[in-house]
Design a protein that fits this description.
By secondary structure, the chain is mostly helical. The chain has 6 helices and no strands.
Amino acid sequence: LQAVSHTFNASRGQIINGNSSAAKKTAIYLMKKRTGAINKEIGALFGGISYSAIAKTYQRFSEQMGEDEGLREKVAKVEEKLSLVKG
């Protein structure tokens, strides 16, 4: 969430509460793609979104990225920041 927050210039609360839709969708997409969290866990983090809504958000966002180069670049920036994080 921190990398998404920085890239989209949105607070964690704005992302979780959906005030920044692109940032929220990016966070959901990357959590599903890069973590072992299941849809139910991701949904709980975002205020109780259903597991099926998480799956649909991921699918639609993946399709949208295929059509929108600017969005792909923004997601790539977030992923670059994530690759610099040491765990």
